[in-house]
């Protein structure tokens, strides 16, 4: 018997009950299958974006271009990732989850193989955009599938598992990339991505069933899509969660896009030392995500209050990086507050997703697509800003972090209004 056939099919009568969700019928083994496969799908995007970060200096030398042009290959990936989610999310609300997921993953495999053979930096930019587009389905459809199956606190628990992968993968990917560069050139990294994507495709084909029954799929084409977007943007809590999540990811991405040059060129790290630094920082993400989930699921702390505390931590940590660097604090003046900043980002991921998706089960794909698209779109725009400011110190990175965190504070005060948020259902 296949894994797929052992997973219960979602039924309309289950969905009609507001307190009983289809995922409640899954056994522990079946939930583990979903966590592993959907986690692998979620990781495809961060691995696509970040696995080759340690190779930036190598790309710069091989193609004979400046650092800003190399960073634009990352921007292209983020733009493709964001646009892909805007398309795939609403599409999955109309036709179901499996078809968009499978087709987009096939595109990712093809783009990864072509990127490994790219003759110029310009061709690589285009292929990276296509890679990002192909990876988008994993992020948005995985989140939508979890919302199809779960609600209330079980939704928080499952989202925390995906948030752990989504937050940890961008930090682990450069560690893996630095080790891969020890045994292969930068083109080999793209062959590895193609192989990983192929494995994800096989796992999806055999292990993931359709979670959105025909009765719940949106109809009406453009009008239905406009209605979905209208419902989402009229919900100030959703918009607030959208912005706080995007600003936190922008702060994290400021670190990801800068760190290769900052720690290797400015502080003199080797590729392996750079990877070890990411491993240490990954602990911050793990602590943040898991503690956030524990507080929401076990201690009944509302996700809005998790967001308040974590954004406050990000503001303090980002200001500390800027101030200590300006005062000549050196390597430790950057690394220590940076670790706390990254931990603060980990707190936000599951809390912002739970807050945003809790009231929008009927538009799960569209709601998830906006979360991912705004995260990656805004973060992608931050990369050229840092490149323009230069990477001669930690100050440009921390300046973007400070700006993003302050925008998140504004979103909390004006839109979320924490005291007004209703509690999650059990």
From TrEMBL:
GO terms for cellular component: plasma membrane. The chain crosses the membrane at residues 32-49, 69-89, 101-121, 127-146, 158-177, 189-209, 237-256, 276-296, 305-324, 336-358, 370-391, 397-416. One of its GO terms (molecular function) is xenobiotic transmembrane transporter activity. It is a multi-pass membrane protein. Gene3D superfamilies: Multidrug resistance protein D. It holds the Pfam family MFS_1. One of its GO terms (biological process) is xenobiotic detoxification by transmembrane export across the plasma membrane. InterPro entries: Efflux_drug-R_Bcr/CmlA (IPR004812), MFS (IPR011701), MFS_dom (IPR020846), MFS_trans_sf (IPR036259), Sugar_transporter_CS (IPR005829). Keywords: Cell membrane, Membrane, Transmembrane, Transmembrane helix, Transport. CDD domains: MFS_MdfA_MDR_like. Residues 31-421 form the Major facilitator superfamily (MFS) profile domain. PROSITE patterns: MFS (PS50850), SUGAR_TRANSPORT_1 (PS00216). It is found in: Cell membrane. This is Bcr/CflA family efflux MFS transporter. It comes from Agromyces seonyuensis. Belongs to the major facilitator superfamily. Bcr/CmlA family. The keyword Zinc does not apply. It comes from the Bacteria.
């Amino acid at each position: 018997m296949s894994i797929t056939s052992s997973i219960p099919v979602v039924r309309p009568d289950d969905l009609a009950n507001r307190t009983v969700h289809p995922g409640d019928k899954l056994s522990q083994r079946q939930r583990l299958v979903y966590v592993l496969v959907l986690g692998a799908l979620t990781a495809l995007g961060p691995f696509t974006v970040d696995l080759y970060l340690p190779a930036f200096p190598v790309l710069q030398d091989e193609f004979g271009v400046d650092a800003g042009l190399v960073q634009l290959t990352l921007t292209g990936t983020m733009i493709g990732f964001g646009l892909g989610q805007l398309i795939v999310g609403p599409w999955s609300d109309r036709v179901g989850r499996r078809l968009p997921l499978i087709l987009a993953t096939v595109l990712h495999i093809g783009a990864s193989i072509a990127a490994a053979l790219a003759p110029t930096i310009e061709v690589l930019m285009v292929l990276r955009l296509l890679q990002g587009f192909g990876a988008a389905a994993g992020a948005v459809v995985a989140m939508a599938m979890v919302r199809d199956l779960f609600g209330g606190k079980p939704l928080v628990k499952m989202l925390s598992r995906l948030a752990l992968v989504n937050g940890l993968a961008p930090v682990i990917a450069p560690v893996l990339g630095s080790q891969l560069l020890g045994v292969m050139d930068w083109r080999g990294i793209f062959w590895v991505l193609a192989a990983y994507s192929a494995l994800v495709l096989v796992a999806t084909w055999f292990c993931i069933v359709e979670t959105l029954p025909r009765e719940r799929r949106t109809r009406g084409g453009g009008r239905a899509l406009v209605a979905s977007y209208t419902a989402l943007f009229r919900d100030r809590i959703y918009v607030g969660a959208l912005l706080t999540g995007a600003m936190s990811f922008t702060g994290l991405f400021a670190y990801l896009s800068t760190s290769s040059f900052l720690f290797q060129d400015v502080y003199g790290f080797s590729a392996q030392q750079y990877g070890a630094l990411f491993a240490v920082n990954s602990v911050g993400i793990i602590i943040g995500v898991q503690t956030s989930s524990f507080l929401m699921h076990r201690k009944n702390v509302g996700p809005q209050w998790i967001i308040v505390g974590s954004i406050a931590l990000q503001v303090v940590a980002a200001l500390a990086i800027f101030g200590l660097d300006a005062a000549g604090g050196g390597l430790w003046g950057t690394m220590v507050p940076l670790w706390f900043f990254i931990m603060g980002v980990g707190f936000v991921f599951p809390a912002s997703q739970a807050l945003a998706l809790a009231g929008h089960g009927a538009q799960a794909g569209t709601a998830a697509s906006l979360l991912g698209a705004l995260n990656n779109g805004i973060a992608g725009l931050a990369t050229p800003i840092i490149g323009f400011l230069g990477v001669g110190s930690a100050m440009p990175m921390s300046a973007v972090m400070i700006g993003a965190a302050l925008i998140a504070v504004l979103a909390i005060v004006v839109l979320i209004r924490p005291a007004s948020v209703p509690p999650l259902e059990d």
